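quick q for whoever's on today - can somebody do inverse folding on this one?? i tried earlier but teh output was garbage lol. tokens:
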């Protein structure tokens, strides 16, 4: 804060006390502005929530893909260590022809390859447009809101200065009128020097008041007009932004589906048949039962 700003803050602090204790203090009220400010505050709150939610959406989506990739890596590790250069599992044994590839890779390897490709090719092509056409405009909108919020705060300070000077002007005017009445009616000639000083002070406060009135009324009027225009324009930004949000998601999930269905990923016929006949759970229970009945497990008990 500059020295000038510091002095203004100190003066306003003292003026706040005077305004609260003065019996003749008048506080300006503009219901029209108050209604616009209330609408803007609600809009600003929703925009802040939207910005937070969108950032969280992007982060969670990337985290979800990363977690899914790690999960499949772990599952695939049962068949061997996945080599991203070979695009296959291997046993960690080097032969004359290179690392020994595990021929029994299973479905996990194909799924891992697909996820790896999605992460490297599909996601960057879609998440970047999502950031540019959806997330960034919302962040920009929030920054515009912050500018307006600062102007509203400034308007509040200028309104307070106006009210303080108006109260001070009214007080000095009443004192000057009382002195003038005393001189003209009662004949208190000795009070003429006092009246002269009072009128000089009154003139100075009038000048300050006129400046404060101009600054406050100008800012107040512009804000009322421009807040209305600003809130009217919000749909011109939000509508295409969310249209883009929906379309990008449709393309994203469509591309993911195409990648999964167009790959060589397949489940053996027996598993598919058992799944369709609701027998897959029974087969899994049977396998788990066999594992449970192993002598080694029973010995541990």
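ok took a stab at it. sequence:
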């Amino acid at each position: 804060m500059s020295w000038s700003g510091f002095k203004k803050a100190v003066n306003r602090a003292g003026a706040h006390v005077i305004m609260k204790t003065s019996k003749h203090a008048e506080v300006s009220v503009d219901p029209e502005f108050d209604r616009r400010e209330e609408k803007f505050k609600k809009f600003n709150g929703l925009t802040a929530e939207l910005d937070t939610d969108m950032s969280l959406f992007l982060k969670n989506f990337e985290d979800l893909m990363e977690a899914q990739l790690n999960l499949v890596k772990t599952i695939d590790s049962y068949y061997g260590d996945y080599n991203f250069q070979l695009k296959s599992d291997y046993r960690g044994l080097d032969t004359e022809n290179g690392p020994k590839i595990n021929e029994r890779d299973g479905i996990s390897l194909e799924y891992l390859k697909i996820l790896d490709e999605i992460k490297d090719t599909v996601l960057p092509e879609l998440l970047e447009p999502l950031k540019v056409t959806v997330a960034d405009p919302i962040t920009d909108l929030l920054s515009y809101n912050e500018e307006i919020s600062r102007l509203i705060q400034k308007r509040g300070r200028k309104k307070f200065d106006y009210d303080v000077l108006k109260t001070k002007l009214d007080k000095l005017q009443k004192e000057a009128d009382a002195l003038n009445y005393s001189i003209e009616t009662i004949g208190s000639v000795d009070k003429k020097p006092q009246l002269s000083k009072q009128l000089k002070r009154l003139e100075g406060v009038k000048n300050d008041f006129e400046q404060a009135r101009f600054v406050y009324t100008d800012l107040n009027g512009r804000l009322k007009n421009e807040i209305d225009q600003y809130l009217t324009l919000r749909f011109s930004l939000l509508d295409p932004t969310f249209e883009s949000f929906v379309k990008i998601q449709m393309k994203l999930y469509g591309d993911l589906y195409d990648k999964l269905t167009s790959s060589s990923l397949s489940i053996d016929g027996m598993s598919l048949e058992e799944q369709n006949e609701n027998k897959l759970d029974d087969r899994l229970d049977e396998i788990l039962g066999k594992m449970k009945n192993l002598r080694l497990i029973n010995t541990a008990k």
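fwiw The first strand starts at residue 81 and ends at 83. also DSSP finds seven helices and three strands in the chain. so keep that in mind when u check it
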